[in-house]
Amino acid sequence: MDLLRFLTAGSVDDGKSTLIGRLLYDSKNILIDQLDAIERSSKNRKDGTVDLALLTDGLRAEREQGITIDVAYKYFSTPKRKFIIADTPGHIQYTRNMVTGASNADLIIILVDARNGVVEQTRRHSLIASLLNIPHVVVAINKMDLLNYDQAAYNHIVEDYKKVAEVLKLNNVSYVPISALVGDNIVDASTKMDWYQGPILLDYLENVEVKSSVNLTNARFPVQYVIRPQTEDLHDYRGYAGKIESGIYKKGDQVVVYPSGVEATIEKIELGGKEVEEAFAPQSVVLHLDQDVDISRGDSIVKKDDSLKVGQDIDAIVCWMDEKPLTVGQKYFLQHGSKVVPAMVKEIKYKLDVNQLEKITEVSKADLNEVVEVKLKTASPLAYDAYSEIRESGGAILVDQTSFVTVGAALLQ
Amino acid sequence: MSQYQLDYLDQLESESIHIFREVAGQFEKPALLFSGGKDSITLVHLALKAFRPGKFPFPLVHIDTGHNFPEALAFRDQLAEQIGEKLIVRKVEDTIKAKHLTEQKGKFASRNQLQTFTLLDTIEEFGFDACIGGARRDEEKARAKERIFSVRDDFGQWNPKLQRPELWHTYNGKIHKGENVRVFPISNWTELDIWNYIKRENIQLPSVYFSHEREVLEYQNALIAVSPYIQIDENDKISTRRVRYRTVGDMTCTAAVASEAYSIDDIISEIIATRTSERGETRIDDRFSEAAMEDRKKNGYF
Predict the structure, then answer these.
(1) Residues B106 and B62 occupy one common structural domain
(2) Domain with B281 in it
(3) Distance CA B288, CA B285 (A)
(4) Using one digit for the tens of pLDDT, what is the confidence trace for B14-28?
């Protein structure tokens, strides 16, 4: 069975958590005791309905305020597919948690409140979807029940969003009119929107081709750990443990070790303790090389390839996630694969204006939740790829050198 | 599926092995918290895949409440010996004596809360900077919120409002002295995934997971094993039933389920058919309040 990872995004109160609750409820993926618990908690609601959002709002502070603060992961399956859902916050101040949920997603559902149309958070989340290269976008136009299921209102929002999608170069965008509260077009087709001929949401999620984000062309393998038992019978055993980020490795392949540039041949590949002829992303394996090379954690074993970049001057788009602003001249740790190197911000090239989706130049800092492109200088050479080519080898995080907090998502260019 | 596409269980397995190796690469003094339950047994199996033929770069650590199932303890010792890895056991009983802790009173007095004290003492005693645990996000709504690398302060506290962003498969394990990280390699597995994996990999489990005869006390629709650790009252209804355990925690707060499942296949069929969640059916400690787990985590619990 295959696996689809998706997230729900959109502005506050657009109904993300309710949508997930509805998906789980109508597809019979909620268990009795969980339902009992949310029914008990919903009792103090005036209208007496069950608040399906309580299924994912797992923190006390979230239930008290009726908002989502951090991403919650939910798991469900239908006979066709397994799903991992990231329910992410809509508040602008929690955008970093939305980015966390989006970073591993194959698909994003962007909710739009039909009464409000495309708003700033719709654009912000669409921008993040575009930057992170999420392969599929579904725009779910919610609360259609509050607009008497009006087709014209729906069409108007679709037209508006198409402009956003065009500017952001989003591909594979689908639209569906729904009501998460009453359950229109989520698991069951709505009886009130005959004018809509497209697939309902669950059908779409079950059948969309998981355009795997895994690149099988360019082979990348960061070494996480060196296995050296040093026992009598395994005296010469020296295995490089790691997860293949992209591509395929075969026994006998010629490889280059970075950053040293030493060349070698793959002598043996082990998967779960058994020797195999080849292995591919995202398998976790142990590689053995034909010669004793100095390799440790942070090094990469790469197949000879033109697209790999090696250098210390790196352009990166950064989603800033810290209260303290990013400034020129500041140093951070850049964590990329299994490697951590100090990196300095040499220049901020521009900032992206979320509303106009335009570049603003001559900026000196990036505040919380802002997106900038920077020039970084790393303390030692890094072997990497453009994020748009290989997600795993082009994504890195920036870590504050004293608080150790993750402060930025860096998409290497 | 194409030749180069991984089945979901292989995807989950690879993700978990990667997390294990990140712990080995990023920390000086990690530990694997091992309880003898199916989730921590699965962790050990994944660690074997991550590090063999080398040794584990961490010991197994068990925080023994003194209320464990004897079958789980025997299994724990046997497994540690079989794989030849170091096992450290620290007893809640000793912490209670040394620190004059007050034990819960009542019918099902549980040491669940007290084990946090022993855990934090053990972390300090050995200077553990990372503790690997078998919590899964599908178990409970607070767990559904926690990162795979979850930073705890020097009181072991989780701050759910200030979690580090966690992007892609890049885990930030940098901490200050005194802090530690709780690492959950099987965060993304569901109960059913675990059972399917146990079946596929032929992983051995303690006998309490399979249907057996046991003397139980029926209490508010829960079947609690008769043991020296619970208080039996005159009017209690005690009977011998065919049961199995869906989770294995303390005997005082883990309920059995009536079951005729004698094999892994039987168990998988029962889980697919059930309409009750794992913790909802078997953990009476979660029923205290809606935020029971969140509150315990904030105090240093797993």
Answers:
(1) yes
(2) 207-287
(3) 6
(4) 999 999 999 999 999
